[in-house]
Amino acid sequence: LLGSRLGCLEAEVPPDTETFIRAVGSVFVSTLLTMAMPSWLHRLVPGPWDRLCRDWDQMFAFAQQHVERREAEVALRSKGKPEEDLGSGTHLTYFLFREELPAPSILGNVTELLLAGVDTVSNTLSWALYELSRHPEVQTALYSEITAALGPG
């Protein structure tokens, strides 16, 4: 999507990615709290609403940083090249080249796709690990398959 890695699988996760991940988790909690509260109560107990706004701001800032980085890469590489030849990050590149899409729309879509990706991947991995824990024979077979392909360790 972005044409760059976020660093989630690195031994040391970049601080901006860590902030984004924490903001996503907090958005899920804050959304439930603010949806359960009547809107007039937000003025009396502003904490959940303020937290939700702060976390969305952090997610938008993270997405903005990656969109701007991609825009700079495209600007450097696009001189005289058709847009199909611009390499990785083609989804974002495609939207950046479409002049009828305003920048706030692109940023909003990227932010929501990142949010959806975190939720989808974490749910899928959680269920996969849960099922592996319930079926040790499958866990052993998977381990054997992985070590056969990649080697031990």
Automatic annotation (TrEMBL):
<keyword id="KW-0479">Metal-binding</keyword>
<dbReference type="GO" id="GO:0006700">
    <property type="term" value="P:C21-steroid hormone biosynthetic process"/>
</dbReference>
<dbReference type="GO" id="GO:0020037">
    <property type="term" value="F:heme binding"/>
</dbReference>
<dbReference type="GO" id="GO:0071375">
    <property type="term" value="P:cellular response to peptide hormone stimulus"/>
</dbReference>
<dbReference type="GO" id="GO:0016705">
    <property type="term" value="F:oxidoreductase activity, acting on paired donors, with incorporation or reduction of molecular oxygen"/>
</dbReference>
<dbReference type="GO" id="GO:0006704">
    <property type="term" value="P:glucocorticoid biosynthetic process"/>
</dbReference>
<keyword id="KW-0503">Monooxygenase</keyword>
<dbReference type="GO" id="GO:0008203">
    <property type="term" value="P:cholesterol metabolic process"/>
</dbReference>
<keyword id="KW-0349">Heme</keyword>
<dbReference type="GO" id="GO:0005506">
    <property type="term" value="F:iron ion binding"/>
</dbReference>
<dbReference type="InterPro" id="IPR050479">
    <property type="entry name" value="CYP11_CYP27_families"/>
</dbReference>
<keyword id="KW-0809">Transit peptide</keyword>
<dbReference type="InterPro" id="IPR001128">
    <property type="entry name" value="Cyt_P450"/>
</dbReference>
<comment type="similarity">
    <text>Belongs to the cytochrome P450 family.</text>
</comment>
<protein>
    <submittedName>
        <fullName>25-hydroxyvitamin D-1 alpha hydroxylase, mitochondrial</fullName>
    </submittedName>
</protein>
<dbReference type="Pfam" id="PF00067">
    <property type="entry name" value="p450"/>
</dbReference>
<keyword id="KW-0560">Oxidoreductase</keyword>
<dbReference type="InterPro" id="IPR002401">
    <property type="entry name" value="Cyt_P450_E_grp-I"/>
</dbReference>
<dbReference type="GO" id="GO:0005743">
    <property type="term" value="C:mitochondrial inner membrane"/>
</dbReference>
<dbReference type="GO" id="GO:0004497">
    <property type="term" value="F:monooxygenase activity"/>
</dbReference>
<keyword id="KW-0408">Iron</keyword>
<dbReference type="InterPro" id="IPR036396">
    <property type="entry name" value="Cyt_P450_sf"/>
</dbReference>
<dbReference type="GO" id="GO:0034650">
    <property type="term" value="P:cortisol metabolic process"/>
</dbReference>
